[in-house]
Amino acid sequence: MAEDRRASTPRVAPDAKAPGAALEPFALGRALPRRAALTALAAVALAACGRRAPAAAGGARVVSLSPSTTEAVCAIGAGAALVGRSRHCDHPPEVLRLPSVGGYADPSIEAIVALSPTLVAGARGPAGPALEEALRGQGIATFFPETESLAQIEDMLAELGRRLDAAPGAEQAIGRIRARRAAVEQAVKGAPRVRVALLFDTSPIFAAGPGSFADELIRLAGGENAIARGGPYPSISVEHLLALDPDVLLDGTAGDAEAQEGSARLAQLRDAPGWRSLRAVREGRLRPLRTDVALRPGPRIGDGLAAVARALHGDALALSDAAAVPLSPGGGAGLVRPASRAP
Asked: In whole angstroms, what is the distance from residue 332 CA to residue 326 CA?
């Protein structure tokens, strides 16, 4: 989860042990040198000359470099425009049929160019302006939006709808987020505020801090973030966590299966020194989150907000799932198309 969306301290790859490892999976702290990126692309462009796949007549060809933008393209009904993805993109399952072009911190420029995209989209990350400038230099449009709030996530959906001629689908996706948010806010109205710490990793400990979209989810779900300083993704010590003494610990180290099985990394530390002294651990309020929903800044963020609310207040929370409708207009048929490959 550590995409460096701002070029400061964002999320990272699950194997990178950095802040938000379950969020957008990007390597932290290794920005692609600008000159190297431009040189690499120039060399690749020459090598690829004469063997690019032809762009679809009058149609967009999108390469998405982050799970959130891949989901967004599909959610607005433009999945047929996808011709490539990052290796971390896994939802909806149909996108796994698309060729992978690497990650965002380490994309294969050659693989991107060979797919003849009209648009390369992704969350902001460590490759940053160098990658965007290199692609634009080859006449390829780019879109790497900020998504550190629900408003920015909605803006991302609206802009993709504009660029991909899918404005009605974007409006529907935004409407789903807003309906889910309204349902959550109604459900938690009057409930006691719960002091919570949401942890993305354990060695070292990275937490959701002020300015992150996870911090906004906590507040909207009827919680109070115990981490009140240190930036969006601060690293803290166990001693600091003990001093904060949150009512609930949200385990953001869990994937989908891990969250359902209760086998996330944080749960395995229940008896470890320091951790076992935490009141939330002693009293059984260590709760896993399904991170691909709750901590991925894309079109399912409304359901993620609902998941955070239930983790804070318990499954007895009077929260209807009526607004959790399918995210792909028209179903999965024709969701993605095979990328045209030149011999």
From this structure: 10
How many angstroms separate the CA atoms of 266 and 254, rounded?
A: 8
Torsion of CA 287, 288, 293, 296, to 10 degrees: 100
pTM: 0.79
Quick check: 161 and 171 in contact, CB under 8 A? Answer: yes
Q: Which two tokens stand for residue 271?
A: 């008896």
Residues 169 and 328 sit within 8 Å (Cβ to Cβ): no
* Cα–Cα dist 100/81, whole Å: 15
Give the containing element (helix H, strand E) for 83. strand 82-85
- pLDDT score recorded for residue 46: 32
For the record, the structure tokens of 226 come out as 């115990």
Residue 109 confidence (pLDDT): 87
In our burial notation (b when 16+ CB lie closer than 10 A, e otherwise), range 82-103 reads bbbbbebbbbbebbeebebbbb
Count Cα neighbours of 175 within 13 Å in the Cβ-side half-sphere. 10
10-residue averages of pLDDT along the chain (343 residues): 35 37 39 38 35 50 96 97 95 96 84 95 78 87 94 98 97 97 92 93 91 95 95 93 94 63 62 82 88 90 94 80 50 47 36
Q: What is the pLDDT of residue 50?
A: 33
Tokens of 254: 């869990």
Q: Can you name the residues that pair with 201 across neighbouring β-strands?
A: 206
Q: Which pair of structure tokens corresponds to residue 274?
A: 């320091």
What's the DSSP call for residue 139?
Answer: T
Provide the sign of the torsion angle of the four alpha carbons 10, 16, 20, 23, taken in this order: positive
Residue appearing with tokens 């996808």: 82
For residue 172, what are the CA distances in angstroms to 16, 67, 73, 250?
35, 20, 13, 30
Using alpha carbons, list the distances in angstroms from residue 333 to 25, 170, 328. Answer: 28, 18, 10
